[in-house]
Amino acid sequence: MSDYLDSLEAESIHIFREVAANFQRPVMLYSIGKDSSVLLHLLRKAFFPARPPIPLLHVDTTWKFREMIAFRDDVAKAGDVQVLVHINEDGVRQGISPLVHGATVHTDIMKTVALRQALDKHAFDAAIGGARRDEEKSRAKERVFSFRNAQHRWDPKRQRPELWNLYNTNIHKGESVRVFPLSNWTELDVWQYIRRENIPVVPLYFAKERPVVKRDGALIMVDDDRFTLREGEKIEKRMVRFRTLGCYPLTGAVESAASSLDEIIDEMIQSRSSERQGRVIDQDPSASMERKKQEGYF
User: Fold this and answer.
1) Alpha-carbon distance 99 to 249, whole Å?
2) Is it true that domain 2-189+287-294 has CATH number 3.20.20.370?
3) Cβ distance 270 to 281 under 8 Å?
């Protein structure tokens, strides 16, 4: 297993260095989840002992779990990497909310549009993300270096060939690429690497008694006083954890007793369900991941 993780690590570090060598203004998209934590660790390793030359960008929807924001702020306070935060202020002025406007509208305005705003504002030509091919079918067919046009759109029919470890980094002015160093990792690989490298992650990944509401088949954690109950709903305490993190009203918890890394890994080995089963946005057939990516999503 050590040799296998070493191979994945070496591939990812090579990709980071390729980005730094070939692009003028690269950035790493930092969503604060486990994959982002692994990416940040790899970024630091890739350029150690120098300060990482690639800043982090967090697109803040204003609806992330409070523990996620605290974790992000701790990373920023560490001071070894620049952390940029972007909020779609137009969306804030419109009062866009996942509870009022729904998952699709909220994700489009506060994530997709916000990301395009940030990339344009800073003129980033390469955006590194933590997507993995085992997560979802549209991600399974995407290249490591994924071309985007001047409008940040992805065309799955016009992907560039990637032979062995040779990547095409050529772009015209205004175009960009999304880069996925964890493409060949699995969820289990991520957790085993986190354990081996002792990488800090948001505590929400570990099982704990938390206040949740059962809504549309998902266990939604009540994280602040903006959450409103529907008729017939009630808040109850359950032993839960999260396999994936996002906006708290759109992220379902899973019942679990796994409160340590070893227990999470044992749970992963036995699991037969996708980690994205808890993402409310993924349940909307009109907002498939492929369609969102074509519109400029992560």
Assistant:
1) 7
2) no
3) no
Contact assessment for residue 283 and residue 135, using Cβ atoms and an 8 Å cutoff:
no
Q: What is the pLDDT of residue 153?
A: 86
Of the candidates 84, 89, 95, which has an alpha carbon nearest to the alpha carbon of residue 119?
A: 84
- How far is it, in rounded angstroms, from Cα 103 to Cα 192? 32
Tokens of 21: 């060598």
Q: What is the DSSP letter of 22?
A: H
Question: What's the pLDDT score for residue 287?
Answer: 47
State the chain's mean pLDDT as an integer: 91
Alpha helices in the chain (DSSP H): 2-22, 34-47, 66-78, 89-93, 102-107, 114-122, 137-140, 187-197, 261-270, 289-294
How far is 112 from 103, CA to CA, in rounded Å?
A: 12
- pLDDT at residue 18 is higher than 60: yes
Within the chain, all domains assigned CATH 3.40.50.620 are found at 2-189+287-294
**Residue 102: left if φ>0, alpha if ψ -120 to 50, beta else—which one?**
left
204-220 residue pLDDT tens? 999 999 999 999 889 99
Least confident of 86-100, 127-141, 180-194: 127-141
